[in-house]
Structure formats: structure tokens, C-alpha cells
Specification:
Length: 179
């Protein structure tokens, strides 16, 4: 499923992917690097060797419980969102999925890609019969928090030891949305 839109001077596109060619994988790794260097939102705190980031994304495409969307700005991959579907052995939580690696490279922000990715993952979750979406975010991610709250995510918990950046512990916020 593909969603396209055009902001004032750029074309934006979000696509559910099951494979990536070499160029797209490279662009996704570049976008990941840019998000890490920007310092927010990705699990990695420092730039990683290219092979490691490539291995990560290739792995995502191989795991049956994971679904990946990429966002393109003027044709170049600049953003992603991932859905972690419930594991098959967890019947009690089979109604809900986790949104993760939702980010837009700093150079591609402000064109609506983040909201398009969120919508695409939510639509897919509904289509496969899920009723709830969960996500967690560092309390320092003000733009992401604003986006999730405007889109109906309800904060149900805080964890003060959620992340450690340098020597500082950073609180995490936990959200859920009824789809
Ligand atoms: C959170 C994050 C994904 C949001 O990215 P973003 O670029 O600010 O969000 P969008 O791409 O949806 O852009 C929205 C803005 O673009 C504007 N915009 C421009 N053209 C648009 C269009 N065609 N459609 C919708 N919005 C558009 C909107 O008005 C909005 O601006 P506003 O907030 O000033 O009203 C991004 O800041 C990020 O990657 N942060 C780090 C990672 C992170 O925190 N991830 C979450 C936890 S994993």
C-alpha cells in the first residue's frame, strides 16, 4: 500500500516494503545515521559502522512479526516506521502491536512524512484485525510526543530509568491508542 502527497515544493511518499534494493538500503542507512547524529529517537546513541546498520534493516525485513514502511522525500528514503506484531505464542496480547523506529531524517522533517507513516502503520494494524497500538518514547522527544498526542495516543505510564544517555537517566513515556 502506497500513499503519496505533495507539499509546497516536495513530493512525499510512504510505502510498505518487504524488500529494499541496494540504493534504497543505503538511503535508509544514511537516514538512520542522520537521526542518530541528530541525537534523538533511535536506540543507538552514536553513529554505527555501516555494515551494522545494514544488518539491522535486512534483519527487520526477514522477521515475519515485523512490518516496515519507508518514507521518501523527492524519491529518496528519509524516514521509517515499523510495526512489531504480537508474537504467535502470545494469545493474550494478540490484539495489540508496537510501533517502533518511527523517525524522519532531520533534512526531511516538516513535510508530513511522520504523520503519513503513523497513519499507514495504524491502517495496516486495523486491516489485520488489531485493536490497539502501543509505543514508547523518551520524554525529551517533544515533537514526537506532540505528534502522538494529537493523533489520539494516551499516556499510561512513565519509566524514569527508560534510557541512559551518557551518565543521565532519561524518563520514557508509554502510550496506547485504541484503533
Ligand atoms: C517525531 C518526528 C518523526 C516528526 O517529524 P516531523 O517532520 O516534525 O513531522 P512530519 O513529517 O509529520 O511533519 C509535520 C509538520 O510538517 C508540516 N507539513 C508540511 N507539509 C505537510 C503535508 N503535506 N502534510 C502534513 N504536514 C505537513 C506540518 O504542518 C507539520 O508542521 P507543524 O508541526 O509545525 O504543524 C521527527 O521529529 C523525528 O524523527 N524525531 C526523532 C525520532 C523520534 O523522536 N521518534 C519517535 C520515537 S521512536
Amino acid at each position: 500500500m502506497e500513499t503519496r502527497s505533495a507539499s509546497a515544493s516536495a513530493s512525499v511518499e510512504v510505502k510498505h516494503v518487504t524488500e529494499l534494493n541496494r540504493l534504497d538500503l543505503d538511503d535508509l542507512c544514511d537516514a538512520t545515521d542522520a537521526a542518530i547524529v541528530d541525537g534523538n529517537g533511535f536506540g543507538w546513541l552514536n553513529p554505527q559502522p555501516r555494515e551494522q546498520i545494514q544488518r539491522y534493516w535486512k534483519g527487520v525485513l526477514l522477521v515475519p512479526e515485523r512490518e516496515l514502511w519507508v518514507g521518501r522525500l523527492d524519491g529518496t528514503i528519509a524516514a521509517s516506521a515499523q510495526l512489531q506484531k504480537p508474537p504467535r505464542n502470545n494469545e493474550a496480547q494478540a490484539h495489540s502491536a508496537q510501533l517502533t523506529t518511527h523517525f524522519v531524517a532531520p533534512w526531511a522533517r516538516g513535510h508530513g512524512l511522520a504523520a503519513m507513516l503513523l497513519r499507514a502503520a495504524e491502517d495496516f494494524a486495523r486491516e489485520i484485525g488489531l485493536s490497539h497500538m502501543r509505543l514508547d518514547v523518551r520524554s525529551t522527544q517533544t515533537r514526537a510526543i506532540e505528534l502522538y498526542e494529537t493523533n489520539g495516543y494516551v499516556r499510561w505510564g512513565d519509566l524514569p530509568s527508560y534510557a541512559k544517555v551518557g551518565t543521565d537517566l532519561v524518563t520514557g513515556f508509554f502510550y496506547v491508542k485504541k484503533l
